[in-house]
Every structure is written in C-alpha cells, then in structure tokens.
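stage 2 :: seqdesign
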C-alpha cells in the first residue's frame, strides 16, 4: 500500500509526488520548489522517478540529488531537446542512474513497477505502474479532461493518442491517474469524458 502526498510548483504548476511504501520512500518528478517542501515535511526520499525530462518536471532534480544522494530512474538521459533547453529553458545538470524500459519490470526497495513508454508529448514520456496498486504515475500523457501538448520538440499528437488508447485505456477503469498537472483522475472517467480521446 502506497501513501502518497503531492506538491505543485513552478511556472507550469507541475505536480510532484512523495510516496511511502513499507520498505522505501520515493519521489515522482521534481518540479521547482519540491526540495524545500520535502524538507519542510520531514520526508526523506530514497529514489527519484522522472516521467519525462521537460524542464518543469526536472528543475529540482539536481537539488534532490545533491541533498539526498539518491538514484534517479528515467526512460532517457537528459538532452537539451528533451529538457527544452534547446528552446531557452534553463535546467541545472542532473544525472540519470538507471534507464527504465517498457516490457522490463523495474524493482527497488521491495516495489515492482511496470513501465509504459507513451511518446507524443515528449519522446521519453513514460508511465510508472506500481504492481498491486491501482495507480498510474502518468506525467503529461493523460490528465483530467486533457492530454499532454504535442507542439513541443519531439511531439506527435497522433502517436500520443494511439499510446493512450492502446496502453492506458486497457487498464482497469478504477486505476487512478496521478498526472503532471491538475487533479487526479481515473481511467474510467477519462474514457467516458475526455474530449481529446474517448475510449
């Protein structure tokens, strides 16, 4: 059973998630300001998971790594194109210690995750599905009543819609989607009412 709290910060109001399981604590995404928030709550993460490398999701990645010296998991190593530094965004360099891969289970601290690679918003966009928990850490793939924008470098709207239909909409309707922006939603709710992609 996961205990999850969330923080929203930065110019894009980006969500980051502090998660606690029986044997491990971890953070999903690193929006600006989350390091101070974690410190203020007394939460000590042992791992960092990144759904993708867009600047608003990784602005505090280097600060988290410096503060706690924890491993970082992501689908790809950061590049100026993935972080959007190629568009003039500033990101402190951070490292990815472990690359994740669709079809290969990721395990640490007694937890196991399934990885879904769903590009279209960003080439490296990934969804983390903790085993035995009806939760999807979805980044900017699918949001309440919305989807990730596809007009940034490496974006592809049709590829994004295809990935949502074929990889997310096949999950249980009760699966809670914890998105990169906005409130939580469920797969069932989005299949019924998402104006961009119906089930």
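stage 2 :: out
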């Amino acid at each position: 059973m996961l205990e999850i709290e969330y923080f929203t910060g930065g110019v894009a109001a980006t969500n980051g998630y502090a998660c606690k399981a029986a044997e491990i604590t971890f953070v999903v995404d690193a929006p600006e300001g989350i390091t101070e928030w974690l410190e203020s709550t007394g939460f000590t993460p042992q791992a960092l998971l990144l759904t993708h490398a867009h600047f608003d999701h990784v602005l505090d990645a280097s600060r988290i790594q410096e503060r706690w010296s924890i491993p970082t998991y992501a689908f790809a190593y950061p590049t100026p194109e993935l972080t959007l530094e190629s568009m003039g965004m500033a990101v402190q360099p951070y490292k990815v210690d472990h690359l994740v891969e669709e079809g290969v289970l990721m395990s640490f601290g007694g937890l196991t995750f399934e990885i879904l690679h769903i590009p279209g918003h960003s080439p490296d966009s990934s969804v983390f599905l903790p085993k035995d928990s009806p939760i999807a850490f979805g980044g900017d793939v699918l949001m309440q009543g919305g989807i990730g924008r596809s007009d940034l470098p490496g974006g592809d709207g049709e590829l994004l819609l295809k990935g949502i239909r074929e990889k997310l909409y096949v999950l249980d309707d009760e699966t809670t989607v914890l998105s990169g922006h906005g409130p939580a939603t469920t797969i069932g709710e989005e299949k019924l009412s998402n104006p961009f992609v119906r089930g």
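stage 3 :: structure notes
- The helical segments are 34-41, 55-58, 61-68, 80-83, 157-168, 187-193.
- The chain is about 20% helix and 30% strand.
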